[in-house]
What does this fold into?
Amino acid sequence: MNRVQLRDDIVINFNEAELHQLCVQLELDYDALRGKTHRDRVSVLIGKLERDNRLPDLMEVMAQKRPYLAERYAADPAEPPDSPSEEDRLTWLDNVDRPIEEPPTMRWDTTARHKTDKKKQNKEE
It folds into this structure.
């Protein structure tokens, strides 16, 4: 399941009161959803349910409330993410002591302005 599509479906099809009802049905504390906007709270909800491997529960409740979404989620069920192996989680350590492969793309020339200022001062004197 595309998490962005899931978030957009909730944001578009469920207002704040309905999001609160989704939380009640999923036995979650709506007040624990931190975020300033509706979209932020929906993202937090999806993240929490994904960590708990409960996205199928969310999609089931959404399909009950909005039957036209049932086909979309029936065709693309959520699968819990594969947990990475210890070796996969630590592969970034292989690159710690390696130098940066690309040179910097931009350097500031701080002397150019000062040279012209000194030339102007010399001409004025």
